[in-house]
Amino acid sequence: GTAALIWNEIIREKVTNFIMNQSKEQRILNFVLQNAVRGDPCSVVDTIDKYCSQKEWAMNVGNEKGLILDKTVEEANPSVALELGTYCGYSAVRISRLLKAGARLLTVEFNPEFAAIAKQMIEFAGVQDKVKLLEGPSEEIIPQLKKKYEVDTLDFVFLDHWKDRYTPDTILLQECNLLRKGSVLLADNVIFPGAPDFLNYVRKSPHFQCTNYPSHLEYMEVEDAMEKAVFLG
C-alpha cells in the first residue's frame, strides 16, 4: 500500500504535472467538466470515480467507502453537517446530494489550490446552495463556527483531513460545545494511512459509542476502514 501511494502520489504525479504543466487536481476537474452532466451531483461523483480508478489515483473517499458515507449521512439525516478536508470536493458533492431541503454542509480546506478546484466542482455539480466552503486551518475555523457561521450544534461530522488532526479537532468540537447527544462523527482512513490516536481516544472515551466499518483504500485493494463515533453527551 505504501509503495503504491509513493508511486502514485509522488513519482508518477510529479512527472505528469511537469509534462502537462498542471496539477492532478486540475486534471480531475477538467475531466469532470468535459464528461459529467452539469447540475447532476451523481454524475460528478461517478465521473471522478471513473478518472481516479482508471487514470490517476487520488485521495477521495471513493466509491466503496462512499457507500458507507452515504448510509451514515442518510441515517444521521443532518440539518447541519461539517466536513474537515474538502480536497477536490468529491465528498462534499457526495454528502450534499443526500441532504434534505434547508440543510447545509460546511466544508473546511486548508490548501488554497484544492479549495479553488473544489469550489468549481461544487458549482458544476449544482450543490453550491447547500455547501459553504471555508478556507483555512481546521483548528482556527472550528472555534468560529458558532458565532461567525451561526452553527448551534453539528448533526454530522466527516473527518477526512490530516490524520494527526482527527483527535485534537474532535476534542476541539467538544470544547466548543458543537456536539449534541446523537451527533455522528465518521472518520476515513483509520487503518491506512491510519489514525491510531483517534481510534484510541474515541473508543476509550465514555462520551462516544463506536462502530468500525472495514473496507479498502480508495481505488485500491489495500485494507482500510471507517470509524463511526456517536456522541453520547
UniProtKB/TrEMBL annotation:
Sequence positions that bind S-adenosyl-L-methionine: V61, S91, E109, D160
Family that this chain belongs to: Belongs to the class I-like SAM-binding methyltransferase superfamily. Cation-dependent O-methyltransferase family.
Organism: Rhipidura dahli
Protein origin, superkingdom: Eukaryota
GO cellular component: a single term: membrane
Protein name, per record: catechol O-methyltransferase
Source species taxonomy: Eukaryota, Metazoa, Chordata, Craniata, Vertebrata
GO terms for MF: catechol O-methyltransferase activity; magnesium ion binding
Cofactors (names): Mg(2+)
Pfam families: Methyltransf_3
Cofactor: how and how many bound: Binds 1 Mg(2+) ion per subunit.
